[in-house]
Structures are given as structure tokens and as C-alpha cells.
Design a protein that fits this description.
Helix content is 24%, strand content 34%. A five-stranded mixed beta sheet has the order 1-2-3-4-5.
Length: 102
């Protein structure tokens, strides 16, 4: 299966403290966080083994980082996957310390 065969949706699930990726309603990955009014820390990203290599982790990373930036809060990344993703997307790096978007 490729992501072109089925649509991946990513949504914030604040009650679970994570962004969830789903295909046809099935949970296929998530990026967990701790968030308050001033800061968000992205801690861990998981994609199910059957869905690795389909770009789902990158979609989770982009959605999570952009959400923190849109909120105008400090964004901290401790998740190794999102850190690696950021090295391939330098357009976000200078916006992740202090108060992004200010």
C-alpha cells in the first residue's frame, strides 16, 4: 500500500496528548507531546511497521511542528525522528527557539 492508495489524515488528539495519523479510520502512527500555553515538547513518534516508509512519519512531524508554530508558542523537539526530519527541512530550524512567529 502507498499513501496514494489511501488517504492519510492527521489530527490533534489533545486528550491523548498526541497527533494521530489514520488511514480509513485505523490508527497507523502518532507523535506524542506535552503542551501548555507557552511551550510544546514533541517527545516521540511511532509509525506502525506495516506503514513505515510511506511518508507518514514526515507528515506527523510537519503537522506537529507547524501546529506549535501556528500557536506562537516555544517549540522543543526531543523526539529523534522529528529531529532527523528537521535536518532535512531547514526552513523550520530557525523558528524553533524562543517564540516562533513573533
Amino acid at each position: 500500500m502507498s499513501t496514494s492508495e489511501a488517504e492519510v489524515t492527521v489530527a490533534d488528539a489533545p486528550q491523548a496528548h498526541r497527533f494521530e495519523a489514520r488511514i480509513e479510520g485505523e490508527l497507523v502512527g502518532f507523535a506524542s507531546y506535552v503542551r501548555d500555553d507557552e511551550r510544546v515538547t514533541y517527545q516521540h513518534t511511532v509509525v506502525g511497521p506495516a506503514y513505515e516508509g510511506l511518508g507518514i512519519g514526515g507528515l506527523l512531524a510537519r503537522t506537529a511542528v507547524e501546529d506549535g508554530l501556528r500557536r506562537g508558542i516555544e517549540v522543543e523537539v526531543t523526539c529523534p525522528f522529528i529531529k532527523a526530519w528537521l535536518t532535512r527541512h531547514p526552513e523550520y530550524q530557525d523558528r524553533l527557539s524562543g517564540t516562533p512567529g513573533a
